[in-house]
Design goal:
139 residues, eight-stranded antiparallel beta barrel, mainly beta
C-alpha cells in the first residue's frame, strides 16, 4: 500500500508539471522582443502580390550623413531624426502605441499605423497599412 501511495504521488506530481508546462504560451504571432530602442533607417520598398519584397537602400538618407532614425522610448514617446541638407539634424517628436503587431505613430494631428512584419534584436520591419510601403530599420 505504501508503494502504491508513492506511485500515485509521483504520477500526480508528474501530471501537474506536465499540465503547467503545456499552458497557453501562444502570443498570437506577436514577438516578445522589446520594441523600445533606436532604429536607423535602412531600406524601403513594396511587396508584390506574390509576397516577394522589392527593397532598396532608403533614399531618405543623405549621402555622407548619419542615417535617419526612429527612436521609440519606454515612455511611448517617438522621436524621428531626419538628416537633411548639410547633414543638419531635425528631430520631430510624437507618440507611439503598440497593439499586438500594429504600431501607430502620431505626430501632431497625423497618425500612421503599420503592421510589424519583423522585430528582432537587430531589425524592425514595418508595413504602412494605408500605402503598403515597407520600411526596414536596423539597430
Amino acid at each position: 500500500m505504501k508503494n502504491l501511495n508513492k506511485i500515485v504521488y509521483v504520477l500526480a506530481l508528474s501530471l501537474g508539471i506536465f499540465a503547467t508546462s503545456c499552458s497557453n504560451d501562444d502570443n498570437e504571432g506577436e514577438t516578445i522582443v522589446p520594441l523600445e530602442g533606436t532604429y536607423n533607417l535602412s531600406k524601403t520598398g513594396t511587396q508584390n502580390s506574390d509576397g516577394t519584397e522589392n527593397l532598396i537602400d532608403a533614399p531618405q538618407n543623405q549621402s555622407g550623413c548619419s542615417r535617419d532614425y526612429l527612436e521609440l522610448r519606454v515612455s511611448n514617446k517617438a522621436v524621428i531624426g531626419d538628416y537633411g541638407a548639410n547633414c543638419a539634424l531635425t528631430k520631430t517628436e510624437g507618440t507611439y502605441v503598440r497593439s499586438h503587431n500594429d504600431l501607430t505613430i502620431t505626430v501632431g494631428n497625423l497618425s500612421t499605423t503599420s503592421d510589424i512584419m519583423n522585430l528582432t534584436n537587430k531589425e524592425l520591419k514595418i508595413k504602412d497599412k494605408t500605402t503598403g510601403i515597407i520600411t526596414v530599420y536596423t539597430r
